[in-house]
Amino acid sequence: MLTVNVAKSGEVTEILLTGELDGMTSPQLEQQLNSLIEAGERCFLIRFAALALITSAGLRVFLGFAKKMHKLNGKMILCEMSANVRGVFDTAGFSNIMTISATAAEGKALLEPEPAPPA
Amino acid sequence: MFGSSGNVSKAEAARTAVIAGAIDVLVTLSAAIAAHSSVLLADFFKTSLEFVAVLLSWLAIRRIVGGSNHQFDYGIGKLENLSSLFVGSIMLLGMLVIVVNAIANILNPSHIEGIGVWISLGAQIVFGAINSALSWRSFRTARAENSPLLKSQGQLFFTRAFGNVFILLALGLSLLLSGFSWSIYIDPAASLVIAASILISAIGVLSSSFYDLLDRTLEEADQIVILRELAQHFHDYEALHGIRSRRAGGGVFVEVFLEFDPDKTMGEIQNVVETLCHSIEAQIPSSQVAVALAREARR
Predict the structure, then answer these.
(1) Which domains are delineated in chain B?
(2) Closest CA to B97 of B234, B219, B199
(3) Residue A28 touches chain B, beta carbons under 8 Å
(4) B237, A67: Cβ pair inside 8 Å?
(5) CATH classification at residue A54
(6) Of A45, B42, B240, B270, which has the fewest CB atoms closer than 10 Å, so is most exposed?
(7) What is the mean pLDDT of residues A60-65?
């Protein structure tokens, strides 16, 4: 079972994942992410705080999504991963191609445009 | 992989097993005829059934090796598993024959006697050594080629070597302790122990063959290997449209659907594809990886 909560905060689309991301639930997430891209969203903060499990099927969704973001010059930050989930990302070598931050605040700071220098 | 040299070595191993099995059947038959022993009668049934199984495996492999019409270009994994399934079924049948015979001899016990007992004692020593050697050889080749057929043959020879030693002990004790009235039960009781060992071996062969016969997805560890390689080549392709993988028989088949930059030359794409395929194949034993060029997401 996977719940995907989407919230918009300025330019950033915040996605909170709750439950398990496996072969059964990954198509649901993939579909939602694709819909958001089609709707024009290009800046994503994906929160893993409530995600208990991720399998290769879930990782595959993020690899495909990362490629799309790269092609569209979009931004994607993953954050609040548990040690187990982080371990899976590290083992798959995803930490080298995706930006992973410890907290949501840190992730948001990376996504938000830097304030223009005073004139 | 399913190279022709691999199939030839499998055929040679199976042919040696057939020759050894045929001699074993003749010896056990003559010993069973010349003695009144339930162990020897059971040994004959068991040996004959095993011989039939090994013979069928050899004929199947010989047909594949001899064929030149590319009928088995995708490997013989399924056929090997079907053969293993048959070997396991034969072992179960042999076990049932031994049990029925042992029960009959417990109900109507008699002392073992005759020249057949001495023929069998000599034969058990010789065939015990041969079966041990064949078992070791089959397991070694099965490990090298990831072949369920040779693995099941290795288990079969191990069971037979164990049976040889056990029959040797049972006959020896029956002769040495013939002065005691209860020694008449050593013979049928020993045959029941052999039946139990065959049952355990048959369950192992049947379960692994049946499991491998069904196509199934790869284990998580292997899936991660594929994803890690795709992550490593992240900047070499434009989009990932899907991954299909399955384990069929002793082989693993992986298809990766990738989209490439249209400005890339075929040579550049080929280099990426070859590197990707080779690195995945190097890490997943007996795998065949294919990269398909795709443009739209496959649903």
Answers:
(1) 4-213 (1.20.1510), 220-293 (3.30.70.1350)
(2) B199
(3) no
(4) yes
(5) 3.30.750.24
(6) B270
(7) 95
Q: What is the pLDDT of residues A17-39, one digit of tens each?
A: 999 999 999 999 999 999 999 99
- Chain A nearest C-alpha distance from B6 (Å): 33
How far, in Å, are A20, A86, A108 from residue A49 at the CA level?
12, 11, 15
Give pLDDT tens digits for B125-150: 888 898 899 889 888 888 887 777 77
Rg over alpha carbons for chain B, rounded to the nearest Å, is: 26
Establish if A94 belongs to a structural domain.
Answer: yes
- The CA distance from A69 to A35, in Å, is 13
Q: Do B224 and A56 touch (CB under 8 A)?
A: yes
Residue A78 lies in a domain: yes
The DSSP letter of residue A10 is T
Q: How high is the ipTM of this complex?
A: 0.90
Angle at CA of residue B89, ends B85 and B92, nearest 5°: 140
Residues of chain B predicted below pLDDT 70: 1-10, 36, 63-80, 211-215, 249-250, 296-299
Distance CA B212, CA B210 (A): 5
Whether residue A68 lies inside any domain: the answer is yes
**Residues A59, B224: C-beta atoms closer than 8 Å:** yes
